[in-house]
Amino acid sequence: MATKKKQYANPFMKVKVSEDAVSLYNQALSFKASGQYEVAVETYEQAIQLRPNFVEAYYNKGNALRELKKFEEAIASYDLAIRFKPDFAMAYFTKGNACKEIEKFELALECYDRAIELNPW
To answer: 68 CB contacts (<8 Å, ≥6 apart)?
Structure first.
């Protein structure tokens, strides 16, 4: 079965991407790595539309949102990653970092404690 291709609207470059969730996720990772955080967030959202329980996409969307200083949105994205994978220690840790940035220190400590419980490193 052939995969549909579409032109992705990106202000920096034109990239043809596959509409499947993993391909979109990989594109989003590339956008994030090159500092194109807004485009990355949009692309993670597209991947999530195709696979609503895509834990890694929620997590990395949160990371891109944190880079954009959109901490409340990042926390919401980490919460969705945690909802689908309750033992995701790194999601708790990065959620804690986002909470710390907006001075929600008690919630940050709870997140760090939970991350340590799950993975004492």
So the answer is: 37, 38, 41
- Amino acid at the residue 11: P
Distances (CA, A) of 115 to 15, 93, 112: 37, 6, 5
Distance CA 65, CA 77 (A): 9
Q: Which residues pair with 15 in a beta bridge?
A: 8
Q: Could you tell me the pLDDT band of residue 121, with boundaries at 50, 70 and 90?
A: confident
How far is 76 from 21, CA to CA, in rounded Å? 20
Q: What is the pTM of this model?
A: 0.82
Burial group, residue 99, by CB count within 10 angstroms (0-12, 13-18, 19+): buried
Could you give the CA distance from residue 85 to residue 115 in angstroms, rounded to a whole number?
Answer: 13
pLDDT in tens, 62-115: 999 999 999 999 999 999 999 999 999 999 999 999 999 999 999 999 999 999
Q: Are 78 and 62 in contact (CB under 8 A)?
A: yes
